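Q: Could you predict the 3D structure of ATP-dependent zinc metalloprotease FtsH?
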Amino acid sequence: MNPFGNGPLLRWIAFFLGLMLVWNIVALRPTPATINLPYSAFLDQVQAGNVERVELREQQVQGMLKVPVAAEAGATISGGSPLGVAPREATNFTSTIPGVGDQELLPLLRTQGVQIVAEVEQRSVLWSVLLTFGPVLLFVGFFFYMMRQQGRGQQGAFSFGQSRAKMQTGDRPTVTFAEVAGAEEAKRELTEVVDFLKNPERYQQLGAKIPRGVLLVGPPGTGKTLLAKAVAGEAGVPFFSTSASEFVELFVGVGASRVRDLFNQARRNGPAIVFIDELDAIGRQRGTGMGGGNDEREQTLNQILVEMDGFETSAMPVIIIAATNRPDVLDPALLRPGRFDRQVTVGLPDVRGREAILRVHVRGKPVANDVDTSILARQTPGFAGADLANLVNEAALHAARHSARMIGIQHFREALEKIVLGTERPVLMNEHERTVIAYHEAGHALVSSLLPESDPVNKVTIIPRGRALGVTEYLPEGDRFNYSRQYLRTQLATLFGGRAAEQVAIGEITTGAENDLQRATQLARRMVGRWGMSDEMGLLFASEGMESPFLGREMAGPRDHSEATAARLDEAVRQLLEERMATAVRLLTENRGTLDRLAQALLDYETIDRQQVEAIIRGEDLPPPPVGGRTQPALPVERPSGMAQPRPGIAVA
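A: Sure. Here are the predicted structure tokens for ATP-dependent zinc metalloprotease FtsH:
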């Protein structure tokens, strides 16, 4: 390593070396030797006729001697040698006239024929003004500085209540409907708003009133904010964007002041669009005392309600677009006609919507010819627009990591596995643990393949990913919006397939089924208490106080049924779970040979796909695994207690 490889360091070293060189040159320049004479010695030299020339400057006398004199008592000599060695005699001299003055000095100099030069120090006008008025100017400047600082503080206090919304003009729209995919129904709803902003006279002539508020409702990542920007871009009007949390401050009244300022700005620039993201931050129900309610939030909400009612029909139109994924917590006054009287649902895209979103995100990227967006759309059920954008970005990162020039289908597969299943983790396991995990995952895959209305198995692996030691991935053939009773019963049996395989093949159960039991219990409780899929409970809807938007499971509200009904519900859930567990055990016992072959294939290959699983179930033999195909990690990490949580539409065991 070169210690002088740093460019700035070399420049600083060169600067200091040059400075030292200049200093040495200046210091070594020879200066004339000058003797400092006492005033009495100076008079002696004048009387002796040895003074040739003098310069008088107030009380300072400088001059030149005719004959050099040596330094005597009280006299010193300076300069004359660049090596710092003072000479013994000098021609130039200096002396100081006493403060009381000497009236005989000038006649004496004239008598001796000395050349007299008198100099008066001339000061510039600016220097004189500074010396005269400098202290006064400094004091006045300091006074005005303090007044200005105080004014800034007061201005900051008054601007504390101003809106912090960001304004985007409609001259150069950044987003249009062409860049929004997968939300065709929402775009059709908002087209009317765009047309009103472009041609308000056509509606006003007929007495029609456009909705003052449009509420975009949908899960996170579905493109609600993008839709609002597209409306402003299509209409070509100013767009004020802010978040509801920016209205709420520590001091009561600041939020209401910011709301007034925001709507005043929108009216001055109308027609305009005001977009408020995460409306539930200030729009929650008033008077509940829960969910973070306080006086400041309620005053801000009241001001929003007043401003929405205060729109005049003759004024320039201002439309409010708000977004939330919690419409159930909003105050009813916000949702009444005349305020947010139009709700647009922005849901998860279907397969065609996902394909359109993928085409938007791969646009302009070097994508290989083997990438088919229609296949990727079928492989990503339950993905929102943000998830698909993340998928394309992860694929590009994988391609860059492998130094590829184009993004291929293999990079998309790696990205999808990382998002859905998690990152591969090196975990050091012995053969017994690997065998238990292999039978566990083989049980999931086999039970799913033997039952009707089951999603096909896409991949089975015993390589640890994320928090799971093994993963069985299912890929639905299409989007499901309604689930039958048979499909849900198959899901319960599939979840118990891993525990059943351990019981049948190993003869001992482990902690690996924790997540399976949790998901199965939640699903069975919904089937029995909410969906009426139990003969014991019939059509009774038995909630557990979880419908309140402000209370979680730990602080659930009162039940809407008796303790006896709750006991019957628990018994019905337990019977359903035990019956599906018995079904899984029976299927695996009857197909023990297929279970052993699946487990052995997992031990040999560590990862098998859908074609290999189907071949083993048909009784076909797989080719021997490649040499070195088994990847046994060498780095131990902490073993998790549960399995991975599934993404909607893709089951992970």
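Q: Anything worth pointing out?
A: Confidence is low (pLDDT under 50) at residues 1-6, 152-161, 546-556, 629-653.
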